[in-house]
Design goal:
The chain is built from 12 helices and 8 strands. The protein is of the alpha/beta class. The protein has one domain: 3-Layer(aba) Sandwich (Rossmann fold), CATH 3.40.50.1110. The protein has a 6-stranded mixed sheet. A two-stranded antiparallel ribbon has the order 6-7. Helix 2 links the parallel strand 1 and strand 2. The termini are far apart. Bound molecules: 2-acetamido-2-deoxy-beta-D-glucopyranose (NAG) (2 copies). One 2-acetamido-2-deoxy-beta-D-glucopyranose binds next to helix 12.
Length: 363
């Protein structure tokens, strides 16, 4: 009896969905803590943001798993493309029925391009698994709206992927003489990362993604955590800056290379290094009192350990560029997303999000 009811309910739902056309474009998110909206809440891992003061400025004033005091980058992109809501974490039990059509967030804090990145966090959704979940998602949506309509939804969707920072911070530079740093000189490691990242992005293309924003890493050496651990006088860590300086331009070249192979502007490089650099080099111009000290943390620059209830907490989060030792505040995220939406080609190569939206609305 219960089974019959659920079959009937599914049929009614499916009919409703087919008749209410898929309006706003779907949005899919892959990557690490900069874009995780709560998947790690459902996993046995230490890489999590599900306790206060995380979320202190989020509309619900609760910790959701976002590594921010308020909105994160995917939230602000969702808002700027006019989506009704941010895509839910893929592991959320609430991601069902019509809500699947909004998209899904597969990101998991701690992951990198490489499988051995973030091993200390144990149970995280590595990028290969994120892509497998994307396939599973497509099967679930096909059961709702059919294969053809699902394909269309995927092809017309916007995709955001953020990877790479952890391959340096939580792998190559995690400990002195790490396995990867003994295996590779930095320039060779970067080339290896780029070639592995290319395979991931080609797979994403094969799975139907046609508009993919790929962020580079920020200035890794300038985050409060690195200032606390590696800097003597508040200057950015030379090695990590070198790593970001090698990685980001090669990432852009690789993306433009795939575009010319597939003959379309599928991948867009977001120069988050430059965006961060803007407010790091002149915080006052952006309304920040500092870009060196995290709002939430302890030790020098509030850069040591985790952001918890016991940490120092700044009273006004809007005047800090960094919320915790690694992650930008909502205010800084707003500037990052503003550049994604309207930045010049120096920030968004080959085009910004408003150009993408304008182009796609014509077809
Ligand atoms: C990472 O792990 C996945 C799944 O086990 C595997 O398919 C993939 O080849 C691995 N990647 C690398 C670079 O070893
Ligand atoms: C987006 O990029 C285009 C092309 O580079 C540029 O002309 C435009 O000013 C940018 N901003 C907006 C809002 O379109």
């Amino acid at each position: 009896m219960a089974a019959l009811y659920s079959i009937l309910l599914a049929l009614i739902l499916a009919t409703l969905l087919v008749t209410t056309r898929v309006e706003a474009r779907a949005f899919f998110v892959f990557g690490d803590s900069l874009v995780d909206s709560g998947n790690n809440n459902y996993l046995a891992t230490t890489a999590r943001a599900d306790a206060p003061p995380y979320g202190i400025d989020y509309p619900s004033r609760t910790a959701t798993g976002r590594f921010s005091n308020g909105y994160n980058i995917p939230d602000l992109i969702s808002q700027s493309i006019g989506a009704s809501e941010s895509p839910l974490p893929y592991l959320s039990p609430e991601l069902n029925g019509p809500r699947l059509l909004v998209g899904a967030n597969f990101a998991s804090a701690g992951v990198g391009i490489l499988n051995d990145t973030g091993i200390q966090f144990v149970n995280i959704i590595r990028i290969g698994q994120q892509l497998q979940y994307f396939q599973q998602y497509q099967q679930r949506v096909s059961a709702l709206i059919g294969v053809e309509e699902t394909q269309r939804l995927i092809n017309q969707a916007l995709v955001l992927i953020t990877l790479g920072g952890n391959d340096f911070v939580n792998n190559y530079y995690l400990v002195p003489f790490s396995a990867r740093s003994r295996q590779f000189a930095l320039p060779d490691y970067v080339r290896y990362l780029i070639s592995e990242y290319q395979k991931i992005l080609v797979r994403l293309y094969e799975l139907g993604a046609r508009r993919v924003i790929v962020t580079g890493t920020g200035p890794l050496g300038c985050v409060p955590a690195e200032l606390a651990m590696r800097s003597r006088n508040g200057e950015c860590s030379v090695e990590l800056q070198q790593a970001a300086g090698l990685f980001n331009p090669q990432l852009t070249d690789m993306l433009l290379g795939i575009n010319s192979q597939v003959g379309a502007d599928v991948f867009v490089a977001a120069n988050t290094q430059l965006t961060h650099y803007d407010f790091i080099s002149n915080p006052q111009a952006f309304g920040f009192v500092t870009s060196k000290v995290a709002c939430c943390g302890q030790g020098p620059y509030n850069g040591l350990g985790l952001c918890t209830r016991l940490s120092n907490l700044c009273p006004n989060r809007d005047i800090y560029a960094f919320w915790d030792p690694f992650h930008p505040s909502e205010r800084a995220n707003r500037y990052i997303v503003q550049q994604i939406v309207t930045g010049t080609t120096e920030y968004m190569n080959p085009m910004n999000l408003s150009t993408i939206l304008a182009l796609d609305s014509r077809t």
